[in-house]
Batch of 2 targets.
Target 1
Amino acid sequence: DAGVIQSPRHEVTEMGQEVTLRCKPISGHNSLFWYRQTMMRGLELLIYFNNNVPIDDSGMPEDRFSAKMPNASFSTLKIQPSEPRDSAVYFCASSLPHSSYNEQFFGPGTRLTVL
Amino acid sequence: AQSVTQPDIHITVSEGASLELRCNYSYGATPYLFWYVQSPGQGLQLLLKYFSGDTLVQGIKGFEAEFKRSQSSFNLRKPSVHWSDAAEYFCAVVPNSGGYQKVTFGTGTKLQVIP
Protein backbone atom coordinates (compact mmCIF):
# COMPACT_ATOMS: atom_id res chain seq x y z
CA ASP A 1 0.00 0.00 0.00
CA ALA A 2 1.27 3.47 -0.84
CA GLY A 3 0.18 4.93 2.45
CA VAL A 4 -1.70 8.19 2.83
CA ILE A 5 -1.07 10.40 -0.18
CA GLN A 6 -1.19 14.18 0.00
CA SER A 7 -0.81 16.77 -2.70
CA PRO A 8 0.75 19.13 -3.26
CA ARG A 9 3.76 18.65 -0.98
CA HIS A 10 4.53 22.34 -1.07
CA GLU A 11 2.30 25.29 -1.86
CA VAL A 12 3.24 28.93 -2.00
CA THR A 13 0.48 31.40 -2.59
CA GLU A 14 -0.37 35.01 -2.06
CA MET A 15 -2.75 36.35 0.52
CA GLY A 16 -6.33 36.29 -0.67
CA GLN A 17 -5.90 33.34 -3.00
CA GLU A 18 -7.81 30.09 -2.70
CA VAL A 19 -5.83 27.03 -1.64
CA THR A 20 -6.95 23.42 -1.99
CA LEU A 21 -5.13 20.58 -0.30
CA ARG A 22 -5.84 17.00 -1.28
CA CYS A 23 -5.67 13.67 0.50
CA LYS A 24 -6.10 10.04 -0.48
CA PRO A 25 -6.43 7.80 2.59
CA ILE A 26 -5.26 4.22 2.83
CA SER A 27 -7.70 1.87 1.16
CA GLY A 28 -10.05 0.32 3.70
CA HIS A 29 -9.62 3.09 6.24
CA ASN A 30 -12.90 4.85 6.85
CA SER A 31 -11.70 7.44 9.35
CA LEU A 32 -9.91 10.51 8.07
CA PHE A 33 -8.35 13.39 9.95
CA TRP A 34 -6.94 16.77 8.92
CA TYR A 35 -4.32 18.32 11.20
CA ARG A 36 -2.38 21.56 11.16
CA GLN A 37 1.12 21.81 12.62
CA THR A 38 2.81 25.08 13.56
CA MET A 39 5.67 25.97 15.84
CA MET A 40 3.42 28.07 18.04
CA ARG A 41 0.43 25.76 18.41
CA GLY A 42 1.86 22.31 17.73
CA LEU A 43 -0.35 19.69 16.13
CA GLU A 44 -4.04 20.60 16.03
CA LEU A 45 -6.95 18.51 14.81
CA LEU A 46 -8.99 20.48 12.30
CA ILE A 47 -11.66 17.98 11.29
CA TYR A 48 -12.48 14.29 11.55
CA PHE A 49 -14.55 12.30 9.05
CA ASN A 50 -16.02 8.86 9.62
CA ASN A 51 -17.50 7.06 6.61
CA ASN A 52 -17.21 10.31 4.62
CA VAL A 53 -19.31 12.22 7.16
CA PRO A 54 -17.79 15.06 9.20
CA ILE A 55 -18.03 14.07 12.86
CA ASP A 56 -15.91 16.67 14.61
CA ASP A 57 -15.13 20.00 12.97
CA SER A 58 -14.63 21.92 16.19
CA GLY A 59 -11.02 22.57 15.28
CA MET A 60 -11.75 24.32 12.00
CA PRO A 61 -10.45 27.84 12.59
CA GLU A 62 -13.13 29.86 10.86
CA ASP A 63 -15.40 30.06 7.86
CA ARG A 64 -12.46 30.50 5.54
CA PHE A 65 -11.70 26.81 6.05
CA SER A 66 -13.83 24.04 4.60
CA ALA A 67 -13.31 20.32 4.15
CA LYS A 68 -15.08 17.73 2.07
CA MET A 69 -14.94 14.00 1.62
CA PRO A 70 -17.01 13.14 -1.46
CA ASN A 71 -16.02 9.47 -1.35
CA ALA A 72 -13.99 7.00 0.66
CA SER A 73 -10.81 7.63 -1.29
CA PHE A 74 -10.57 11.39 -1.47
CA SER A 75 -10.76 14.45 0.74
CA THR A 76 -10.01 18.12 0.30
CA LEU A 77 -9.23 20.96 2.65
CA LYS A 78 -9.89 24.39 1.19
CA ILE A 79 -8.86 27.79 2.48
CA GLN A 80 -10.52 30.79 0.88
CA PRO A 81 -9.28 33.45 1.12
CA SER A 82 -5.89 32.47 2.47
CA GLU A 83 -4.00 34.63 4.98
CA PRO A 84 -0.34 34.65 6.07
CA ARG A 85 -1.32 33.18 9.47
CA ASP A 86 -2.53 30.06 7.66
CA SER A 87 1.08 29.19 6.85
CA ALA A 88 1.71 25.75 8.37
CA VAL A 89 2.16 22.10 7.55
CA TYR A 90 -1.15 20.38 6.98
CA PHE A 91 -1.36 16.65 7.58
CA CYS A 92 -3.97 14.16 6.57
CA ALA A 93 -4.24 10.91 8.53
CA SER A 94 -6.44 7.85 8.20
CA SER A 95 -7.30 4.91 10.39
CA LEU A 96 -9.45 1.83 10.56
CA PRO A 97 -13.01 2.23 11.81
CA HIS A 98 -12.60 4.77 14.48
CA SER A 99 -11.91 3.64 17.92
CA SER A 100 -9.83 5.55 20.33
CA TYR A 101 -7.07 2.97 20.27
CA ASN A 102 -6.63 2.71 16.52
CA GLU A 103 -3.36 3.89 15.08
CA GLN A 104 -3.52 6.88 12.79
CA PHE A 105 -1.43 6.73 9.63
CA PHE A 106 -0.14 10.11 8.59
CA GLY A 107 0.62 11.42 5.15
CA PRO A 108 3.83 13.36 4.43
CA GLY A 109 2.06 16.68 4.79
CA THR A 110 1.61 19.80 2.68
CA ARG A 111 3.76 22.76 3.60
CA LEU A 112 1.71 25.88 2.92
CA THR A 113 3.25 29.31 2.73
CA VAL A 114 0.97 32.31 2.32
CA LEU A 115 2.81 35.48 1.41
CA ALA B 1 -8.42 20.42 32.43
CA GLN B 2 -7.11 17.41 30.59
CA SER B 3 -3.60 17.80 29.23
CA VAL B 4 -0.44 16.08 28.11
CA THR B 5 2.98 17.53 28.83
CA GLN B 6 6.37 16.88 27.33
CA PRO B 7 8.67 18.94 29.52
CA ASP B 8 11.75 18.66 27.31
CA ILE B 9 11.61 20.67 24.10
CA HIS B 10 15.02 19.58 22.89
CA ILE B 11 17.38 16.78 23.96
CA THR B 12 20.87 15.97 22.72
CA VAL B 13 22.45 12.57 23.25
CA SER B 14 25.54 10.84 21.96
CA GLU B 15 25.18 7.92 19.62
CA GLY B 16 25.16 4.71 21.65
CA ALA B 17 23.94 6.42 24.81
CA SER B 18 20.63 5.63 26.45
CA LEU B 19 17.58 7.81 25.99
CA GLU B 20 14.54 8.68 28.04
CA LEU B 21 11.86 11.11 26.86
CA ARG B 22 9.32 12.25 29.39
CA CYS B 23 5.55 12.44 29.05
CA ASN B 24 3.06 13.33 31.75
CA TYR B 25 -0.69 13.47 31.44
CA SER B 26 -3.52 14.89 33.44
CA TYR B 27 -6.79 13.01 32.99
CA GLY B 28 -9.52 11.79 35.28
CA ALA B 29 -8.84 8.16 34.43
CA THR B 30 -6.05 6.33 32.68
CA PRO B 31 -6.26 7.29 29.02
CA TYR B 32 -4.97 5.44 26.02
CA LEU B 33 -1.31 6.46 25.53
CA PHE B 34 0.79 6.65 22.39
CA TRP B 35 4.23 7.67 21.23
CA TYR B 36 4.72 8.87 17.65
CA VAL B 37 7.92 9.85 15.84
CA GLN B 38 8.24 12.46 13.11
CA SER B 39 11.33 12.45 10.93
CA PRO B 40 12.21 15.68 9.13
CA GLY B 41 9.82 16.37 6.28
CA GLN B 42 7.66 13.38 7.12
CA GLY B 43 4.37 12.64 8.80
CA LEU B 44 4.04 11.01 12.21
CA GLN B 45 4.60 7.29 12.65
CA LEU B 46 3.38 5.24 15.60
CA LEU B 47 6.15 3.82 17.80
CA LEU B 48 4.02 2.13 20.45
CA LYS B 49 0.79 2.34 22.41
CA TYR B 50 -0.60 1.39 25.81
CA PHE B 51 -4.17 0.50 26.64
CA SER B 52 -4.00 -1.83 29.63
CA GLY B 53 -2.11 -4.79 31.05
CA ASP B 54 1.66 -4.97 31.19
CA THR B 55 2.92 -1.49 32.00
CA LEU B 56 6.08 -1.95 29.95
CA VAL B 57 5.30 -1.89 26.25
CA GLN B 58 7.63 -2.64 23.38
CA GLY B 59 7.52 -0.76 20.14
CA ILE B 60 9.25 -0.54 16.81
CA LYS B 61 12.86 0.52 16.25
CA GLY B 62 13.94 -0.78 19.66
CA PHE B 63 11.85 1.67 21.68
CA GLU B 64 9.92 0.87 24.82
CA ALA B 65 7.75 2.86 27.20
CA GLU B 66 6.66 2.38 30.77
CA PHE B 67 3.30 3.45 32.14
CA LYS B 68 3.41 4.58 35.75
CA ARG B 69 -0.04 5.29 37.13
CA SER B 70 1.26 6.80 40.37
CA GLN B 71 3.25 9.38 38.42
CA SER B 72 0.79 9.86 35.55
CA SER B 73 3.72 9.25 33.23
CA PHE B 74 4.45 7.33 30.06
CA ASN B 75 8.15 7.80 29.39
CA LEU B 76 9.80 6.57 26.22
CA ARG B 77 13.16 4.81 26.43
CA LYS B 78 15.82 3.32 24.21
CA PRO B 79 18.96 1.60 25.56
CA SER B 80 21.28 2.68 22.75
CA VAL B 81 20.49 5.53 20.40
CA HIS B 82 21.39 5.43 16.72
CA TRP B 83 22.02 8.46 14.53
CA SER B 84 18.87 7.60 12.59
CA ASP B 85 16.78 8.19 15.73
CA ALA B 86 17.23 11.94 15.35
CA ALA B 87 13.66 13.16 14.96
CA GLU B 88 10.83 14.76 16.89
CA TYR B 89 8.87 12.59 19.29
CA PHE B 90 5.26 13.17 20.29
CA CYS B 91 3.35 11.72 23.19
CA ALA B 92 -0.39 11.48 22.59
CA VAL B 93 -3.37 10.62 24.76
CA VAL B 94 -6.99 9.72 24.16
CA PRO B 95 -9.60 9.54 26.93
CA ASN B 96 -10.63 5.96 27.65
CA SER B 97 -14.32 6.70 27.80
CA GLY B 98 -15.81 5.07 24.75
CA GLY B 99 -17.08 6.45 21.47
CA TYR B 100 -15.19 9.08 19.56
CA GLN B 101 -12.54 10.88 21.55
CA LYS B 102 -10.11 13.40 20.14
CA VAL B 103 -6.40 12.61 20.27
CA THR B 104 -4.36 15.23 22.13
CA PHE B 105 -0.73 15.49 21.13
CA GLY B 106 2.04 16.86 23.31
CA THR B 107 4.21 19.67 22.05
CA GLY B 108 6.97 17.30 21.05
CA THR B 109 10.60 16.66 22.01
CA LYS B 110 13.21 17.16 19.34
CA LEU B 111 16.07 14.65 19.62
CA GLN B 112 19.53 15.45 18.33
CA VAL B 113 22.10 12.65 18.14
CA ILE B 114 25.77 13.53 18.07
CA PRO B 115 28.55 11.19 16.94
Target 2
Amino acid sequence: GESVGLHLPTLSVQEGDNSIINCAYSNSASDYFIWYKQESGKGPQFIIDIRSNMDKRQGQRVTVLLNKTVKHLSLQIAATQPGDSAVYFCAEKAGANNLFFGTGTRLTVIP
Amino acid sequence: EAQVTQNPRYLITVTGKKLTVTCSQNMNHEYMSWYRQDPGLGLRQIYYSMNVEVTDKGDVPEGYKVSRKEKRNFPLILESPSPNQTSLYFCASSLGTGIGSAFFGQGTRLTVV
Protein backbone atom coordinates (compact mmCIF):
# COMPACT_ATOMS: atom_id res chain seq x y z
CA GLY A 1 0.00 0.00 0.00
CA GLU A 2 0.89 3.62 -0.15
CA SER A 3 3.21 5.11 2.42
CA VAL A 4 3.07 8.77 3.20
CA GLY A 5 5.37 10.14 5.83
CA LEU A 6 7.12 13.23 7.00
CA HIS A 7 10.83 13.72 7.49
CA LEU A 8 10.51 15.69 10.72
CA PRO A 9 7.82 15.20 13.34
CA THR A 10 8.43 18.66 14.87
CA LEU A 11 9.61 21.99 13.54
CA SER A 12 10.25 25.23 15.42
CA VAL A 13 10.72 28.54 13.63
CA GLN A 14 11.05 32.16 14.62
CA GLU A 15 8.14 34.42 13.87
CA GLY A 16 8.73 36.10 10.53
CA ASP A 17 10.97 33.37 9.17
CA ASN A 18 9.96 31.03 6.39
CA SER A 19 8.92 27.46 7.23
CA ILE A 20 9.45 24.38 5.11
CA ILE A 21 7.58 21.18 5.91
CA ASN A 22 8.51 18.07 3.99
CA CYS A 23 6.65 14.96 2.99
CA ALA A 24 7.80 11.79 1.24
CA TYR A 25 5.48 9.46 -0.59
CA SER A 26 6.13 6.00 -1.95
CA ASN A 27 3.56 5.48 -4.69
CA SER A 28 4.77 6.87 -7.99
CA ALA A 29 1.21 6.53 -9.32
CA SER A 30 -0.10 9.17 -6.91
CA ASP A 31 -1.62 11.97 -8.96
CA TYR A 32 -3.05 14.39 -6.44
CA PHE A 33 -1.67 15.82 -3.21
CA ILE A 34 -3.13 18.00 -0.50
CA TRP A 35 -1.71 19.82 2.50
CA TYR A 36 -3.87 20.19 5.59
CA LYS A 37 -3.45 22.21 8.76
CA GLN A 38 -4.87 20.95 12.04
CA GLU A 39 -5.08 23.19 15.05
CA SER A 40 -5.57 21.79 18.50
CA GLY A 41 -9.13 20.59 19.04
CA LYS A 42 -10.16 21.14 15.45
CA GLY A 43 -10.52 19.13 12.31
CA PRO A 44 -7.99 19.32 9.46
CA GLN A 45 -8.31 22.39 7.30
CA PHE A 46 -7.43 22.46 3.60
CA ILE A 47 -4.43 24.64 2.77
CA ILE A 48 -3.41 23.92 -0.80
CA ASP A 49 -3.40 21.12 -3.33
CA ILE A 50 -1.37 20.16 -6.38
CA ARG A 51 -1.78 17.71 -9.20
CA SER A 52 1.01 15.54 -10.47
CA ASN A 53 1.23 17.44 -13.75
CA MET A 54 2.48 20.47 -11.82
CA ASP A 55 5.74 21.14 -9.99
CA LYS A 56 4.73 24.17 -8.02
CA ARG A 57 1.62 25.92 -6.87
CA GLN A 58 1.28 29.09 -4.86
CA GLY A 59 -1.40 30.33 -2.53
CA GLN A 60 -1.54 33.12 -0.04
CA ARG A 61 1.79 32.90 1.86
CA VAL A 62 2.03 29.20 1.02
CA THR A 63 3.77 27.35 -1.78
CA VAL A 64 3.67 23.64 -2.48
CA LEU A 65 6.50 22.03 -4.42
CA LEU A 66 6.29 18.59 -5.95
CA ASN A 67 9.33 16.61 -7.02
CA LYS A 68 8.09 13.46 -8.69
CA THR A 69 11.57 12.19 -9.39
CA VAL A 70 12.29 11.66 -5.71
CA LYS A 71 8.64 11.43 -4.64
CA HIS A 72 8.87 14.43 -2.39
CA LEU A 73 6.40 17.13 -1.48
CA SER A 74 7.03 20.27 0.51
CA LEU A 75 4.98 23.08 1.97
CA GLN A 76 6.60 26.47 2.31
CA ILE A 77 5.05 29.09 4.54
CA ALA A 78 6.34 32.62 4.10
CA ALA A 79 6.73 35.01 7.04
CA THR A 80 5.49 32.48 9.56
CA GLN A 81 3.08 33.84 12.13
CA PRO A 82 2.03 32.53 15.57
CA GLY A 83 -1.32 31.56 14.05
CA ASP A 84 0.52 29.13 11.81
CA SER A 85 1.39 26.94 14.80
CA ALA A 86 -0.38 23.63 14.16
CA VAL A 87 0.12 20.12 12.87
CA TYR A 88 0.49 19.90 9.12
CA PHE A 89 -0.45 16.79 7.13
CA CYS A 90 0.17 15.85 3.56
CA ALA A 91 -2.20 13.48 1.81
CA GLU A 92 -1.96 11.66 -1.50
CA LYS A 93 -4.39 10.02 -3.89
CA ALA A 94 -3.34 7.30 -6.30
CA GLY A 95 -6.17 6.36 -8.61
CA ALA A 96 -8.51 5.00 -5.95
CA ASN A 97 -11.26 6.99 -4.33
CA ASN A 98 -9.57 7.63 -1.02
CA LEU A 99 -6.72 9.65 0.37
CA PHE A 100 -3.73 8.45 2.37
CA PHE A 101 -2.47 10.77 5.07
CA GLY A 102 0.93 11.19 6.63
CA THR A 103 1.33 11.25 10.39
CA GLY A 104 1.90 15.00 10.52
CA THR A 105 4.53 17.58 11.49
CA ARG A 106 3.98 19.88 14.44
CA LEU A 107 5.01 23.43 13.60
CA THR A 108 5.74 25.74 16.53
CA VAL A 109 6.26 29.43 15.88
CA ILE A 110 8.44 31.18 18.42
CA PRO A 111 7.44 34.82 19.00
CA GLU B 1 -21.84 28.96 6.26
CA ALA B 2 -20.34 25.87 4.64
CA GLN B 3 -19.78 23.25 7.26
CA VAL B 4 -19.62 19.63 8.24
CA THR B 5 -21.34 18.93 11.55
CA GLN B 6 -20.63 15.92 13.70
CA ASN B 7 -22.46 14.82 16.81
CA PRO B 8 -21.67 14.16 19.51
CA ARG B 9 -18.32 15.89 20.03
CA TYR B 10 -17.47 13.69 22.99
CA LEU B 11 -18.77 10.26 23.92
CA ILE B 12 -17.85 7.73 26.55
CA THR B 13 -19.52 4.36 26.21
CA VAL B 14 -19.17 0.77 27.34
CA THR B 15 -18.04 -2.20 25.33
CA GLY B 16 -20.79 -3.70 23.21
CA LYS B 17 -23.28 -0.86 23.41
CA LYS B 18 -24.28 0.18 19.91
CA LEU B 19 -23.71 3.79 19.02
CA THR B 20 -24.06 6.13 16.07
CA VAL B 21 -22.04 9.23 15.28
CA THR B 22 -23.90 11.53 12.95
CA CYS B 23 -22.39 13.63 10.18
CA SER B 24 -24.17 16.23 8.09
CA GLN B 25 -22.91 18.61 5.41
CA ASN B 26 -24.68 21.58 3.83
CA MET B 27 -22.60 21.94 0.67
CA ASN B 28 -24.36 19.41 -1.55
CA HIS B 29 -21.13 17.44 -1.77
CA GLU B 30 -21.29 14.02 -3.32
CA TYR B 31 -18.26 12.54 -1.59
CA MET B 32 -18.20 11.90 2.15
CA SER B 33 -15.85 9.89 4.30
CA TRP B 34 -15.01 8.89 7.85
CA TYR B 35 -11.53 8.86 9.36
CA ARG B 36 -10.10 7.92 12.68
CA GLN B 37 -7.05 9.67 14.06
CA ASP B 38 -4.71 7.94 16.46
CA PRO B 39 -1.36 9.13 17.86
CA GLY B 40 1.52 8.18 15.60
CA LEU B 41 -0.80 6.80 12.93
CA GLY B 42 -2.29 9.92 11.44
CA LEU B 43 -5.66 9.88 9.72
CA ARG B 44 -6.90 6.54 8.45
CA GLN B 45 -9.97 6.21 6.32
CA ILE B 46 -12.75 3.96 7.62
CA TYR B 47 -15.44 4.22 4.95
CA TYR B 48 -16.30 6.55 2.14
CA SER B 49 -19.30 7.27 -0.04
CA MET B 50 -19.25 8.52 -3.61
CA ASN B 51 -22.94 9.36 -3.59
CA VAL B 52 -26.31 8.35 -2.18
CA GLU B 53 -26.51 4.59 -1.63
CA VAL B 54 -22.88 4.17 -2.75
CA THR B 55 -20.45 3.29 0.03
CA ASP B 56 -17.14 1.47 0.14
CA LYS B 57 -14.53 0.36 2.61
CA GLY B 58 -11.48 2.45 3.40
CA ASP B 59 -8.34 1.24 5.10
CA VAL B 60 -9.76 0.27 8.50
CA PRO B 61 -13.44 -0.67 8.09
CA GLU B 62 -13.59 -3.55 10.59
CA GLY B 63 -16.10 -2.94 13.36
CA TYR B 64 -17.84 -0.07 11.58
CA LYS B 65 -20.86 0.42 9.37
CA VAL B 66 -22.11 3.40 7.42
CA SER B 67 -25.14 4.38 5.43
CA ARG B 68 -25.87 7.07 2.86
CA LYS B 69 -29.61 7.38 2.44
CA GLU B 70 -29.46 11.11 1.87
CA LYS B 71 -26.80 13.22 0.24
CA ARG B 72 -26.23 15.41 3.26
CA ASN B 73 -25.95 12.70 5.95
CA PHE B 74 -23.37 9.99 6.47
CA PRO B 75 -23.67 8.37 9.90
CA LEU B 76 -21.00 6.09 11.34
CA ILE B 77 -22.34 3.10 13.24
CA LEU B 78 -20.48 0.97 15.76
CA GLU B 79 -22.65 -2.08 16.32
CA SER B 80 -20.55 -3.47 19.18
CA PRO B 81 -17.86 -1.00 20.21
CA SER B 82 -14.62 -2.29 21.64
CA PRO B 83 -11.82 -0.46 23.50
CA ASN B 84 -9.59 -0.49 20.40
CA GLN B 85 -12.13 1.80 18.76
CA THR B 86 -11.29 4.51 21.25
CA SER B 87 -10.13 7.27 18.97
CA LEU B 88 -10.78 10.69 17.49
CA TYR B 89 -13.16 10.47 14.53
CA PHE B 90 -13.55 12.92 11.69
CA CYS B 91 -16.15 13.15 8.99
CA ALA B 92 -15.26 14.91 5.75
CA SER B 93 -17.03 15.91 2.57
CA SER B 94 -15.89 17.16 -0.80
CA LEU B 95 -16.99 17.41 -4.41
CA GLY B 96 -14.65 14.48 -5.02
CA THR B 97 -11.34 13.18 -3.79
CA GLY B 98 -9.52 14.86 -6.62
CA ILE B 99 -11.67 17.91 -6.94
CA GLY B 100 -11.22 20.88 -4.66
CA SER B 101 -10.72 20.62 -0.95
CA ALA B 102 -12.25 18.37 1.66
CA PHE B 103 -14.14 19.97 4.52
CA PHE B 104 -13.70 18.25 7.86
CA GLY B 105 -15.98 18.24 10.84
CA GLN B 106 -14.80 19.24 14.30
CA GLY B 107 -14.24 15.66 15.37
CA THR B 108 -15.81 13.21 17.80
CA ARG B 109 -13.69 11.91 20.62
CA LEU B 110 -14.92 8.43 21.48
CA THR B 111 -13.84 6.46 24.51
CA VAL B 112 -14.93 2.83 24.87
CA VAL B 113 -14.42 1.35 28.32
